[in-house]
């Protein structure tokens, strides 16, 4: 019997932008391997969303930020899984990205906002689309 409260996950994505370039990481040994995604990860129980953004940015890139601004929310209801994706802008990101999780990320790279890669991670596609189109919500 199916549980009436089926589980879904909350993904937190961090936009780090410098000189009109967006920081993306190439995924490795994880779902969406070979595609490019934003720094981020899962919201943990009892954790504030901005704390997740701060933690994940540091864990994945070694970069620090204390000021996160809400960008958008996507109800990412795919055939194989259901996520609530939340995007935040790191307003004061400091440092340079380093490869802190080489088992999960092949490299960090800056992409011009007008020339992003074709192979964007499925969980980040609509978050990036919302950002580019100045939308704060996508429901699919």
Automatic annotation (TrEMBL):
* Coiled-coil region(s): none
What's an example of a GO molecular-function annotation for this chain?
A: 8-oxo-7,8-dihydrodeoxyguanosine triphosphate pyrophosphatase activity
Q: Which residues cross the membrane?
A: none
Q: Which keywords describe this protein according to UniProt?
A: Hydrolase
Provide GO CC annotations from the record. cytosol
Entry keyword Protease: no
Q: Which CDD domains has this protein been placed in?
A: NUDIX_MTH2_Nudt15 (cd04678)
Is RNA-binding included in the keywords of this UniProt record?
no
Per its UniProt entry, which superkingdom is the organism in? Bacteria
GO terms for biological process?
dGTP catabolic process
Checking Pfam families in the record gives: NUDIX
Domain Nudix hydrolase per the UniProt entry, residue ranges: 7-135
Q: Which Gene3D superfamilies does this entry report, sorted A to Z?
A: Nucleoside Triphosphate Pyrophosphohydrolase (3.90.79.10)
- Annotated PANTHER family: 8-OXO-DGTP DIPHOSPHATES NUDT15, NUCLEOTIDE TRIPHOSPHATE DIPHOSPHATASE NUDT15
Family recorded in the similarity comment: Belongs to the Nudix hydrolase family.
**What is the designated name of this protein?**
Nudix hydrolase domain-containing protein
| Native source organism of the sequence | Candidatus Nealsonbacteria bacterium RIFOXYB1_FULL_40_15
């Amino acid at each position: 019997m199916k549980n009436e409260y089926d589980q879904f996950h909350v993904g937190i994505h961090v936009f780090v932008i410098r000189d009109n370039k967006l920081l993306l990481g190439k995924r490795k040994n994880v779902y969406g391997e070979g595609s490019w995604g934003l720094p981020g990860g899962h919201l943990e129980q009892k954790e504030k969303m901005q704390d997740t953004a701060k933690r994940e940015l540091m864990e994945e890139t070694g970069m620090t930020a204390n000021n996160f601004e809400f960008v958008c929310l996507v109800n990412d209801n795919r055939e194989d899984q259901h996520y609530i994706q939340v995007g935040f802008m790191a307003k004061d990101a400091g440092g340079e990205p380093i490869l802190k999780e080489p088992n999960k990320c092949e490299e960090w790279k800056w992409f011009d906002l007008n020339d992003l890669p074709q192979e964007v991670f499925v969980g980040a596609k609509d978050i990036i689309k919302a950002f580019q189109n100045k939308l704060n919500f996508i429901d699919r």
